[in-house]
Write a structure and sequence with these properties.
Blueprint: E1 5-13, H1 19-27, E2 30-32, E3 40-43, E4 51-55, E5 60-67, H2 71-83, E6 89-90, H3 93-99, E7 101-108, E8 114-121, E9 145-151, H4 156-165, E10 169-173, E11 176-177, E12 183-190, E13 198-202, E14 206-215, H5 219-231, E15 236-243, E16 249-254, E17 260-265, E18 284-287, E19 300-301
Parallel strand pairs: 1-4, 5-8, 9-13, 14-17
Antiparallel strand pairs: 1-5, 2-3, 3-4, 6-7, 7-8, 9-14, 10-12, 11-12, 12-13, 14-19, 15-16, 15-18, 16-17
The protein binds fe (ii) ion.
Fe (ii) ion is lined by residues 146, 148, 211, 213, 262.
């Protein structure tokens, strides 16, 4: 299937209410009216929302919304899942209303992360108001940014899910063998002019959402957010720097829900016709010093296989 972009992200968290101030004040995200259950809806553009924080007893990624071109693409995706005998569930009318989309189908990857393939999201022209003076976000048809999860192992089943079911391609990957015959390291996948929309980091024994990334139109908004986070003595997990892979100048900080948020500007826009795969000689051009006190709390130990 052909996924256009990362359209929305949903999380559950006991601290969901904190995002009502965290999102707008730190990053300039907009706020929509809360859901009936108190769900916080954060906006990056005229879409109803891009990031949903649902109330829940545990901090976790609830779902990843992948945007399809239109209804025909949606029907085609379902036909493909049927043909490949891959289990799926249709989103209920209530769930579609909650996500503000016309339809979606839910699939689970081999590590049980929920992926939703949707089409026709609701928007209101001219309605986006940033949470503070701001130059806006890279969103629209380019979507949210990217999401990165930790998985305890990487096998053919995961490879097949990402490349065959989701139809994405590897942009860059750094899998290295482990002494017990497994692998370790990050892999980043793309489906549009962004260098990557999805990442899986293989770390034996650990699992959970590691970070999400959002991109602003102006580096000044990133710099001002970086200043503010330091003034407020909030937890920075990676200092300001520029990745070599995607050229983004960004910093990482811990969110109220435990995973990290990368906020940056200047991400590469690929010429999808002509670019070729290349191999960065190092992860960073400058900066991005890892200063976190350990892994994001959403990344947790998993029971070893029996
Ligand atoms: Fe990232």
């Amino acid at each position: 299937m052909k996924i256009n972009t990362l359209g929305y992200l949903g999380f559950e968290s006991p601290n969901h209410k904190e995002w009502e101030s965290f999102g707008p004040e730190i990053f300039g995200l907009g706020l929509n009216d809360p859901g009936a259950d108190g769900t916080v809806y954060l906006r990056m553009d005229d879409r109803h929302h891009r990031i949903a924080l649902h109330p829940g007893s545990e901090d976790k990624l609830a779902y990843i919304g992948w945007e399809l071109h239109d209804k025909n693409a949606f029907r085609g995706a379902i036909a493909e899942l049927e043909a490949k005998n891959y289990p799926y569930e249709l989103g209920s009318p209530e769930e579609c209303a909650e996500r503000a989309v016309t339809g979606f189908v839910r699939v689970r990857d081999p590590h049980d992360y929920v992926h939703e393939l949707f089409y026709a999201a609701e928007f209101t022209a001219g309605s986006f108001l940033p949470g503070k003076p701001h130059h806006g976000f890279v969103a629209g048809a380019d979507g949210v940014g990217h999401v990165v999860m930790v998985v305890p192992e990487w096998g053919d089943d995961m490879e097949s899910f990402v490349t065959d079911i989701l139809g994405m391609e590897l942009f860059a990957g750094y899998l290295t063998p482990t002494p017990d015959g497994g692998v370790f390291g990050p892999q980043f996948f793309r489906c549009n002019p962004r260098s990557h929309v999805l990442g899986y980091v293989t770390i034996p024994g650990l699992k959970g959402v590691q970070h999400i990334a959002i991109e602003g139109n102006s580096l000044d908004d990133v710099g001002k957010a970086y200043d503010l986070v330091q003034e407020r003595e909030m937890e920075i997990t990676m200092t300001l720097g520029r990745h070599m892979m995607d050229t983004l100048v960004s910093f990482y900080m811990r969110s109220p829900t435990g995973f990290d948020i990368e906020f940056g500007a200047g991400g590469v826009v690929l010429d999808t016709e002509h670019f070729v795969q290349t191999k960065p000689s190092s992860a960073e051009v400058w900066g991005h010093k890892f200063v976190a006190q350990g892994w994001a709390p959403t990344v947790k130990p998993v029971a070893p296989p029996a």
